Structures are given as C-alpha cells and as structure tokens.
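input
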Amino acid sequence: MATEIDKQVAHYRFVPEESTFTVQAFAEGLFSAFGHDPLIGIRDFSGEAKFVPGTFEDASVNVVINASSLAVVNDVKEKDRQEIERMMRDEVLETVKYPEISFKSSHWRFKLTRRYSQQPLDFCRSDCYGR
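output
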C-alpha cells in the first residue's frame, strides 16, 4: 500500500531531444596543455527526477549517460577539439571499458547559488557508478 508521501511524489523523465545537458571541465591535468576550459555536451542520456512538489523531501535523480556521446561544444580549434575528445574518451573515461556513466542520488541537501557561481552544489548520500 502506498504511503501519503508516495502519492505526492512527482516523477519527471528527462527528454534528451528537448534538453541541453552540459558539463564544464577545467584546464587541469590532461587538459591543461590545451589551455581551454572545455564545455562538454552530453547528447545521449536518459533519466528521471522524483520529488515532492514544494520540497526536496524524498528527492532523487537517476541519470544514465552513453559515455561515447560526450563532445566539446564550445568554440575551440578543430585540432584541439579532436584531441580533447580523444583524450576524454580514451584516457579519462575509457569508454570502451566503461560505456555507460550512471549517477544515482537520493536525499539532497544543497544551497541554490547564482548561475555560473564557483560554489559547488553540496550533495549528500549520493552514489556515482561507472567512471
């Protein structure tokens, strides 16, 4: 039998063809030789978010990403783009060995900050599978 909270939980499915999913990488480690902070577009993913509207009670996010679908989307020289993407797939993500990246999170705690803030979101009790 469903609890009262189960009845209130809203479910949202991510729609990749209607969404933009990006990750900002910073020029450290392997990417430092390029002097770029590449913006990585994630083109093939699925997932859902669940929460009680008006709160983050029982909130969770589950995302599965095709690791080979990541590509540099900001303006960099084509030669640099190709090398960054090669290094990302072959040396960082090892997409042949780890074809999927899965992120599962529950019980969120974070502060909302201004867009592009350097302040990271503070997630707790989260599990990240894959690489």
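quick obs: The beta strands are 10-13, 22-24, 39-42, 45-51, 60-66, 70-72, 100-106, 126-129.
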